[in-house]
Amino acid sequence: MVSAKTVIGYVISAVLFVFAVIFALASAYAPIRLVTSAFLFLAGFGILYYTRKQQPIQITQKLEVPGKVKLQTLRCPNCSASLDISQVKVTKGVPSIKCSYCGHIFEVTEEPKW
Ligand SMILES: [Zn+2]
Question: What is this structure's pTM?
Fold first, then answer.
């Protein structure tokens, strides 16, 4: 999946490369333009690197969320019975569990670990 942010990143770096080439060609008349050209190339590479780097990180974060729930021990806040983690059901993006002992339904709250 390609996000709009990625497309914008590629477009900006492409534009910077085009300008870098124009400045490089123009440096035949004014050598100082070669410095500007080098800066544009570096900026273009920087944005390209940043855009490419961003993609895998977002995917990893999405995959980490369901895995974290399994690491916890659940206890019913009503009768303090220990509950089976496999009973957790995600409703409206919130993981919740129904206690098999007293029937109490509560949200499974996660403590952030970073
Ligand atoms: Zn209970």
Answer: 0.40
Q: Where are the domains of the chain?
A: 4-64, 74-107
Whole-number Å distance, alpha carbon 34 to ligand 1 midpoint, is 73
How many A from CA of 105 to the centre of ligand 1? 8
Distance 8 CA to ligand 1 centre (A): 51
Angle, helices 33-69 vs 4-26, to 10°: value is 160
Query: How far is it, in rounded angstroms, from Cα 12 to Cα 51?
Result: 10
* Cα separation, 77 vs 97, whole angstroms: 11
Report the length, in residues, of the chain.
114
Q: How far is CA 30 from CA 24, 25, 34, 64, in A?
A: 10, 10, 8, 54
Taking the C-alpha atoms of residue 20 and residue 37, their distance in angstroms, rounded to an integer, is 4
pLDDT tens track for 75-109: 888 999 988 878 888 878 888 889 999 999 988 87
Ligand 1 midpoint to CA 69 (Å): 19
